[in-house]
UniProtKB/TrEMBL annotation:
GO terms for molecular function: DNA-binding transcription factor activity. One of its GO terms (cellular component) is cytosol. PROSITE patterns: HTH_RRF2_2. This is Transcriptional regulator. InterPro entries: Tscrpt_reg_Rrf2, WH-like_DNA-bd_sf, WH_DNA-bd_sf. It comes from Phyllobacterium myrsinacearum. PANTHER family: HTH-TYPE TRANSCRIPTIONAL REGULATOR YWGB-RELATED (PTHR33221:SF15), WINGED HELIX-TURN-HELIX TRANSCRIPTIONAL REGULATOR, RRF2 FAMILY (PTHR33221). Pfam families: Rrf2.
Length: 150
């Protein structure tokens, strides 16, 4: 099963957008993500509909943040992307009449639901500005390292 990396990729894009002066075209975002501009526009549409980004048309147009990073949580982005599945593992439905399969599926479903609720709660606590601050710290630490001598 393929992993859905839209959340991670869009968080990446939104942080870059915050650091970029002006709008960013779908073409430029597509190059950053190594994908097609149509995929970018389709994905960004959910963020636009939720009010986190806006698009400017015409020459010099592109995507721009509509809200500050402090006002956007991981949960917000996750929801704007259509609430992608959290886990790549799932239940089997090969023998729906089998009582063992039913018991296994009930236990797994309860565990998955609890884990998802915990994860969504954490997503609600983390803003994009938290991620941006972490980036700033990592960047500062990288640039402040003394040059190595060999």
């Amino acid at each position: 099963m393929r992993h859905d990396s839209r959340l991670s990729r869009m968080l990446h894009v939104l942080i870059h957008m915050d650091r970029h002066d002006g709008s960013i075209t779908s073409d430029n975002i597509a190059k950053m993500l190594n994908t097609n501009p149509v995929v970018v526009r389709r994905t960004m549409a959910g963020l636009r509909n939720a009010g986190y980004v806006r698009s400017d048309k015409g020459h010099g147009g592109g995507w721009i943040l509509a809200r500050p990073l402090e006002e956007i949580s991981l949960l917000d982005v996750h929801q704007a992307l259509g609430r992608p599945e959290m886990f790549a593992i799932g239940i089997a439905i090969d023998h729906p009449d089998c009582l063992v399969e039913q018991s296994v599926n009930a236990a797994l479903t309860d565990a998955f639901d609890a884990a998802e609720q915990m994860l969504l709660s954490r997503f609600a606590e983390v803003t994009l500005s938290d991620i941006a601050r972490d980036f700033d710290l990592r960047f500062r630490n990288l640039t402040e390292r003394p040059a190595r001598t060999v």
